[in-house]
Structures are given as structure tokens and as C-alpha cells.
Amino acid sequence: MNYVWLIVGMALVTYVIRAAVFVLGDRLPFPPIVRTALSFVPVTVLTAIIVPMTVSPHGNGAEITWRNPQLVAAIVAIVVCLLTKRPLLTIAVSLAVFFAWQFAVLR
After folding, report:
1. 28-37: per-residue pLDDT in tens?
2. Which of 60, 80, 100, 103 is least enclosed, having the fewest CB within 10 Å?
3. Where are the annotated coiled coils located (predicted)?
4. Of 90, 62, 63, which is closest to residue 78 (Cα–Cα)?
5. What are the tens digits of pLDDT across the range 41-64?
6. Is residue 58 part of a domain?
7. Count of structural domains within the chain
């Protein structure tokens, strides 16, 4: 039962914080430095999610090897993105490389 109250409490705190930003957002002007810092949040969060999944897909430490399909696909994605600047093509090519690499190399 304590877990239920813990989850309810966390949900309430999360809701209050998010609602406060929407309700008070226009009344509380952020300084320019805070607005600049907040603009980097999406990139930082995506990097924090993607890099560990790419470098250590099984959670047992870094797997920097050609047998890691996530790492190979990520490198291909970086190259394709730098060359074409087309997100959909980057996603399609890197997914194709990931599945082909997983099928060909890991079998």
C-alpha cells in the first residue's frame, strides 16, 4: 500500500510542477541565460538516452566493437546525416544497416 501512495505522490508533484509552468509561464519571465540553457535540454536528453544504448546495448559495459549493430548503425546515421541533412533518409538507412548487420554478422 505504501507503493501506491508513493506513486500517487510522485504523480501529484509532477502534475503540480508542470501545471505551474503553464499557469505561471507568462507571469514569470525567464532571464535570457535561462532561456538559452533550456534550449539545450532536448539535445541533452536525447544524447543521454541514445549514447548508453548505443555504446552499451546489453548494460554490461562498453561494447566498442564491429559486432555491436547499434554502434555500427549509429556511425552510419551520423555519416548519412552529415552528408545529406535529410532526417527520414538517415533513419531509413541506419535502420536498414542495423537489421542487415544484426542478421549478417550476429548469425
Report:
1. 788 899 889 9
2. 60
3. none
4. 90
5. 999 999 999 999 999 988 888 999
6. yes
7. 1
* Residue 89 falls inside a structural domain: yes
Share of the chain above pLDDT 90, in %: 70
* pLDDT of amino acid 93: 97
**CB neighbours (10 Å) of residue 56?**
16
42 domain-assigned = yes
Computed over its alpha carbons, how large is the radius of gyration of the chain? 20
Model confidence, pTM = 0.67
The secondary structure element, H or E, covering residue 92 is helix 87-105
* 7 within a domain of the structure (yes/no): no
Residue 93 is part of which domain span? 31-105
